[in-house]
Write a sequence for this structure.
């Protein structure tokens, strides 16, 4: 079969990539239920589910990461009632986080600091860089630069960074032995 | 507690349309609304969006929570953005603004322009959301894949979206079981003391087993797809889609509005409109 016998490239799309991508997106959508406001902040809420995006990028490659963030965020927005297309540029930003995590995981950055620090660094860099796309709020919602920086980018970056840096290494630690037992 | 996408538009006029219609109308509406800052035009589009939404006959009691969340969320967003702008509104020069009062402590000027801007922003968001609801609730889950594929979206991506919607209900059910299983062990994710880090760590006993089980379970789906030769040739879909006269009418209307607004935007006719009574009020303060 195609996914079993052919050598797999980072950008290839086979049945394995599609199923893991769909699982990642569905998990992100379902787990978005868990969120809480940081006490004392200006309604800044942490969504632990965001960690699913860099984790799937890290573990299964950039295509899976891109799809998980893009479609998962749209579904999470839809389930919560915000609407599938209302903030489509934020879905792209989430997709970029997964894509970058996948690319970085294949490089030397992921190997720094073992199975805890490496994934945490990859998740942090991917989150910080991928979320830069939310500056498109300037075009989409007519915000000025200061609002896009403080009201969009930093608003999303701080909680997502906290969630990613804590949860991605935990997920990687749980996934590594499983991966070996599954022969991946 | 945990919601999943549901098909609530069954039997309605919009639910009987080609499933590509809500998707294309949603994209066109998004491209149209972002060009407008004149609340009078946005109000007309919002009214049209309401008519369109009502043709999906989505029972309000089933989406009341989603509407409440959406309205609360966008209201907070608009309020915070208005405060964060520090009184700056789009291309307006600060000296051209008509301040009504200043916020205590932070001193942000609230002007006739910023209130008009906030109201327009709010109505724009509500128009987006009104058009977006039928995409989720008036397309039969099984129609999403063929609809995306027929819109020339790469078939593997279309199949991925289709598969995602199929996984959501089963994963939501798995999550409920995991929560119940952990509760039996005395675990409550939303109780206990500690800051954000402690609260994130408390989600680990739910997120990790759910994610790992989902990944292991995915192997069966992968094997099933491989055994059926997935990806070895062009995919066909059982569901055949064809536009009828009503579908074409809706498409032509949405496209006409998009073109008209784009032309108006290029001609500078969609800029921010400031409420005259607010300008009068601001003038009265001077």
């Amino acid at each position: 079969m195609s996914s079993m016998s052919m050598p797999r490239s980072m950008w290839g799309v086979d049945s394995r990539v599609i199923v893991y991508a769909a699982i990642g997106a569905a998990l992100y959508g379902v787990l978005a239920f868990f969120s809480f406001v940081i006490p004392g902040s200006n309604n800044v809420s942490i969504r632990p589910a965001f960690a699913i995006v860099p984790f799937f990028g890290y573990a299964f490659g950039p295509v899976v990461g891109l799809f998980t963030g893009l479609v998962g965020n749209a579904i999470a927005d839809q389930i919560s009632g915000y609407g599938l297309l209302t903030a489509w540029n934020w879905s792209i930003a989430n997709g970029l986080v997964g894509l970058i995590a996948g690319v970085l995981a294949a490089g030397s950055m992921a190997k720094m600091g073992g199975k805890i620090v490496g994934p945490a660094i990859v998740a942090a860099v991917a989150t910080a860089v991928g979320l830069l796309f939310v500056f498109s709020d300037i075009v989409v919602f007519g915000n000025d630069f200061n609002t896009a920086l403080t009201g969009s980018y930093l608003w999303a970056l701080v909680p997502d960074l906290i969630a990613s840096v804590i949860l991605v290494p935990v997920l990687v630690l749980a996934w590594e032995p499983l991966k070996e037992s599954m022969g991946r | 507690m945990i919601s999943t996408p549901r098909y609530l538009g069954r039997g309605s006029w919009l639910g009987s349309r080609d499933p590509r219609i809500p998707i294309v109308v949603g994209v066109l509406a998004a491209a149209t609304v972002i060009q407008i800052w004149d609340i009078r035009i946005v109000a007309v589009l919002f009214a049209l969006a309401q008519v369109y939404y009502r043709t999906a006959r989505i029972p309000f009691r089933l989406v009341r929570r989603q509407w409440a969340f959406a309205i609360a969320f966008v209201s907070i967003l608009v309020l915070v953005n208005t405060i964060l702008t520090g009184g700056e509104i789009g291309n307006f020069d600060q000296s051209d603004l008509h301040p009504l009062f200043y916020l205590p402590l932070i001193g942000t000027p609230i002007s006739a322009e910023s209130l008009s801007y906030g109201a327009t922003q709010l109505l724009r968001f509500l128009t987006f959301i009104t058009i977006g609801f039928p995409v989720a609730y008036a397309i039969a889950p099984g129609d999403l894949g063929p609809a995306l594929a027929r819109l020339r979206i790469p078939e593997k991506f279309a199949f991925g979206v289709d598969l995602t919607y199929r996984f959501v209900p089963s994963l939501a059910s798995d999550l409920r079981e995991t929560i119940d299983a952990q509760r039996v062990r005395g675990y409550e994710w939303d109780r206990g003391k500690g800051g954000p880090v402690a609260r994130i760590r408390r989600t680990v006993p739910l997120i990790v087993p759910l994610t790992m089980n989902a990944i292991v379970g995915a192997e069966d789906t992968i094997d099933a797809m491989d055994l059926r030769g997935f990806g070895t040739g062009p995919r066909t879909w059982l569901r055949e889609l064809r536009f009828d006269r009503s579908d074409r009418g809706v498409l032509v209307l949405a496209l006409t509005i998009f073109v008209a607004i784009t032309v108006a935007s290029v001609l500078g006719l969609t800029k921010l409109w400031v409420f005259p009574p607010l300008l009068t009020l601001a003038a009265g303060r001077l």
Notes: The CA atoms of residues 110 and 283 of chain B lie 14 Å apart. Chain B is about 65% helix and 0% strand. The first strand of chain B starts at residue 99 and ends at 102.
